[in-house]
Amino acid sequence: MLKALLRSTRITWTAKNIHMYLLALTYAHEYNLAFNPLEFLSGLVIVSILWGGLYSLNDLTDIEVDKRDRLKSDRPFIGGDVKPKMVVLFISALIVFSLASSMFLNPVFTIILLLMVLNQLLYTLPPLRLKETSLAPLNSTAINNILRLASASLLLGDLSVVLASIYILMFTAGLGTYLMYKKKLKETTIVSIIFFLILYYAYHSHDISLSQILIVILPSFMATIPLYLSNIMEREKMIRLADITYHRMLSVFYLACIIILLLLK
After folding, report:
1. In terms of C-beta distances under 8 Å and separation of at least 24 residues, what long-range contacts does 106-109 make, across chains too?
2. How far is 53 from 28, CA to CA, in rounded Å?
3. pLDDT average, residue stretch 83-100
């Protein structure tokens, strides 16, 4: 039972949090901002625990859907080994702990976490269950990228540490990733073009440096290539490759970059 509960938190998916926190940290490093490294790392841990609970919620509400999807047929709750009441208690404990802990850092940080919870509840639960509507691409990774980035930026000073163009850039990146996974090639191509136009603008406006692109943007873009290819090649193999590349390999790289930048502070 405990193993299934822990698996449902998708620990490797912490990569999404680490990615956004590293991006925000590069701006603090570039501007030589004064901040508390311990609070920053604590925030990353708290956000990751929160998302563990939200991913568990997603698995609980998608059991019947996941049974029909070969790529998700190994999700932890499908076998029925864990009682739903126990899962709900586990999810509640993670969310309450995260929100309570966040109050010791910054009240606005807590509000951002509450927005993460609200967004995921709207996305996952009936009667709205936005994941089954046309709003799903916007409500999923795209908005969550902004909220993750905002939470990190706040711990480094305020929300403006990361510039508006970069929030839009990462929103677009999240949107493109979702569309790739959902096999919407035409829409993915359009969003990808918009992404590169925003990136071009951000670079020439000095909103993002070449080193930031090489360290934070390019590796994650490379990791999405197998995801894109999953639409024209062996889908299961390509998606698993994308998962390993981003959620495992890049998460280690990004975490190492965060540690290095904090040591250089």
Report:
1. 106/154, 106/155, 108/154, 109/43, 109/151, 109/154, 109/155
2. 29
3. 92
The answer to whether the predicted template modeling score (pTM) of the entire model surpasses 0.70 is: yes
Q: How much is the pLDDT for 261?
A: 94
In the predicted model, is pLDDT for residue 259 greater than 90? yes
Helices 37-61/15-31 angle, 10° precision: 150
Task: Write out pLDDT tens, residues 146-158.
Answer: 999 999 999 999 9
Among 229, 231, 230, 219, CA closest to 255: 219
Structural domain spans, the chain: 2-263
Percent of the chain at pLDDT exceeding 90? 57
